[in-house]
Amino acid sequence: SSTIDYVDQNVAFGKAYNYYVIARDGNGRTSEQSNTLRVHMPNGPPRFASLDVTAPTKPQGLVAIDMTTTEVTLQWDESSDDKGLSGYKVFVGTRNPFSLYQEYTFVISTSIKIPISNPEVTYVFAVVAVDNTENTSPYSNEVTITPTGEVVDETDTSATNDQTSTGALPHNIANSIELTVSNVSPKRATLSWKPPDEDANVEEYIVYRDGVEIVTQSDTEFKDKGLKPETTYTFSVVAIDDTGSFSYSSNEVNVTTIAQEEIIELGKPVNLRVTSSQINEVTFEWDDPNDGLGIAGYNVFQSTSDPFTIIKFVATTNETKFTVEGLTPETTYRWTVIAFDTEENFSPFSDEISVKPIELG
After folding, report:
1. Which is it for the CA torsion 2, 7, 10, 16, positive or negative?
2. With left for phi above 0 and alpha for psi between -120 and 50, is residue 258 left, alpha or beta?
3. In angstroms, what is the C-alpha Rg of the chain?
4. CA triplet 203, 205, 209: central angle to 5 degrees?
5. pTM for the full model?
């Protein structure tokens, strides 16, 4: 085109497109490529299109194929995606002096030429693949270039440093996390780890199951209760410090849950009864028809009928009695209880009891 604007009429709903411009003079000489503009079209028909949640494959074989004192050319193998690849994010950081990785640019090719602004600095590069619905792959291997022009660290570090995409390549927290798994059952596993560095001001940890984030928390232990029997899962953990920087990923731990034994149906709690009542609190007890066999605890539920409120979870207890406090006088309350075992199989609800606290005071 000879104009300085362009209307693209060949776009589709829900797709991401990348645009860049190159100028060409009358002698056929071309300029450098402009910055890349990425446009994500709004969703549209078909109305019930399936949601793409699958990330592209990780870019492999990142290498520096040419380097001078002023620029370096990187190249990598093409990634794949079941719904279509959009392009690649290129990250650049430094080691001497240290700086966090920053997204340098977005490209649709599998190579890029990057200017080196300071030949006395050690630079580190990595690449992430992006599909048409913005799913991102794990990071590629890193390439480190020293001030002397030596290219190092082109090996794949996925065994210890493979990252689930977090928006910035992690390096501020130096040591990796040592992840262990225990108490594996048909539906559960307990993950535990130690902080990666005594000097790192870790604020949170991200726990991944099969490459998908399942929880962010400050504790160094997590009980995953959402598993299926006889299924293999892969877990890893990443730390975040008070500056928002990420650690390297922990070691990956593969866990296979054990077979589910025959489930013994739990009997519902019986003989639910009030044993003490005051204006603002009520204590009630019940009997366990299971004789405590395999019982891990009880969930207590509450509702009111005057005024009406829907039933809601109140608390969990290990005993066959419970005290509810903070009640409103002259209000009719209803309670029911269920039992559950160590694998969170639940009994039916007990029969309800209905109490207006002041009447039994």
Report:
1. positive
2. beta
3. 29
4. 170
5. 0.41
Chain centroid to Cα 174, Å, comes to 21
Q: How far, in whole angstroms, is CA 234 from its chain's centroid?
A: 13
CA–CA gap between residue 199 and residue 237 (Å, rounded):
18
Report the 10 Å Cβ neighbour count for 247.
Answer: 27
Determine contact, residues 152/144, Cβ cutoff 8 Å: yes
For residues 74 and 63, the answer to whether their CB atoms sit within 8 Å is yes
Residue 174 DSSP class: -
Q: What is the pLDDT of residues 257-289, one digit of tens each?
A: 988 776 667 888 999 999 988 888 899 999 988
Strand pairing report for 143-145 and 122-131: antiparallel
Select from 187, 195, 178 the least CA-distant residue to 252. Answer: 178
Provide the β-strand partners of residue 38. Answer: 18
Check if the beta carbon of residue 241 is closer than 8 Å to that of residue 197. no
Tokens 């019986």 sit at which residue?
A: 270
Q: Are 331 and 349 in contact (CB under 8 A)?
A: no
Q: Which of 2-6, 123-127, 327-331 has the lowest mean pLDDT?
A: 2-6
Q: How far apart are CA 193 and CA 190, in angstroms?
A: 10
